[in-house]
Design goal:
The chain is α+β, with helices and mostly antiparallel strands. The chain contains six helices and five strands; from the N terminus they run E-E-H-E-E-E-H-H-H-H-H.
């Protein structure tokens, strides 16, 4: 392999993936090269649309160096999302265009797994780094709190 490429192997949504990308590439680039693209908003770690669960912790894939993710377990919203959260977000109208939704549900599902009964300020804190230009966030907070209530009842 040329010196300017890095080989990335890992697990994505329960299946192995492999990519060879430039050494400067991000995890987002590696997933695209492996045929598993994610929503890519800002490509600078500021919008949250490409957030994945990286070894159990939410991370924007666009700022994680591809080489640093070698061997990691990566889960997208397909696998990391709690179904009850997805249901409550749909019921509350918490997604409109849906572009930010995958990253939001990854981050908020992590919150609900680690803090089963969050309050509204905790939900808003978990939304740090996630931009949604359609909803104004209130429906997202409401949906997350409703999901938490269902999970703890």
């Amino acid at each position: 392999m040329p010196d300017d490429l890095v080989e990335v192997r890992g697990t994505l949504d329960g299946e192995p993936y492999h990519a060879e990308v430039p050494v400067w590439a991000s995890l987002l680039d590696a997933l695209e090269a492996a045929g598993r693209p994610l929503p890519a908003g800002c490509r600078g770690g500021q919008c949250g649309s490409c957030t994945v669960s990286l070894d159990g912790v939410p991370a924007p894939a666009c700022v994680v160096p591809a080489g640093a993710a070698a061997g990691a377990v990566v889960e997208t919203a397909r696998r990391a999302a709690l179904p009850v959260l997805v249901e409550e977000m749909a019921a509350a109208g918490a997604t409109q265009c849906g572009y930010c939704a995958p990253g939001l549900v990854v981050a908020l599902s992590h919150l609900l797994r680690t803090s089963p009964a969050p309050d509204a300020p905790a939900v808003r804190e978990a939304l740090t780094g996630h931009l949604c230009r359609c909803t104004g966030y209130e429906a997202i907070v409401t949906a997350t709190l409703a999901a938490a209530a269902r999970l703890t009842s």
